[in-house]
Every structure is written in structure tokens, then in C-alpha cells.
Design brief:
98 residues
Length: 98
């Protein structure tokens, strides 16, 4: 009867006091662990959100650069098509008429 030896000679008030101390000790440990982990999660979440914002900004910049470049290339192609026809007409003029 090991339990009887532990609690032998103790009053209910003493046992209750020890239980309350133990519970408050566990409660403070749980609260500290919660605060630590919550702070860590908050920090990592902020870091992840910042990385996502940076990635989004980079993607938007690449998107805009791509379409600006595409527009420029389109204009070059249009000019090339116009010049090709003009050169064809001039070449035909010199070949067949002169």
C-alpha cells in the first residue's frame, strides 16, 4: 500500500494545496508553451505571407514585361509585313517594267 504511505498523515487541506500548486504549475507551463508556439506560428505566417507578396509582385512584373515585349514584337512584325509588300512591289517594278 504505497499510496497510503504517501498520503499518510496529510490533511485534506495540505493535499488540496499540493494539488492546486501542481495544477497551477502545469497551467503556467501550458500557457508558456502556448505563447511560445503561437508566437512562432505568427512569425512563420508573417514570413510566408511576405514571401507570397514578393512572389506575386515578381510575377506581376514578369507578366507586364512579357506583354510589353510582346506588343513591341507585334509592332516589329507589322512593320516587317508592310515593308515586305512595299519591297515586293518595288522589285516587281524594276524587274518587269524596266
Amino acid at each position: 500500500m504505497n499510496i497510503n504511505k504517501i498520503w499518510q498523515g496529510k490533511t485534506i487541506k495540505q493535499v488540496r494545496g499540493k494539488c492546486e500548486n501542481t495544477i497551477s504549475h502545469f497551467q503556467s507551463k501550458i500557457q508558456n508553451t502556448y505563447n511560445t508556439k503561437n508566437a512562432r506560428i505568427t512569425k512563420e505566417t508573417k514570413d510566408t505571407i511576405q514571401e507570397c507578396k514578393e512572389f506575386q509582385q515578381q510575377s506581376e512584373k514578369k507578366f507586364e514585361d512579357y506583354y510589353k515585349r510582346k506588343k513591341f514584337i507585334d509592332y516589329i512584325v507589322y512593320v516587317d509585313l508592310a515593308i515586305s509588300n512595299i519591297l515586293l512591289v518595288v522589285l516587281c517594278y524594276f524587274m518587269f517594267i524596266k
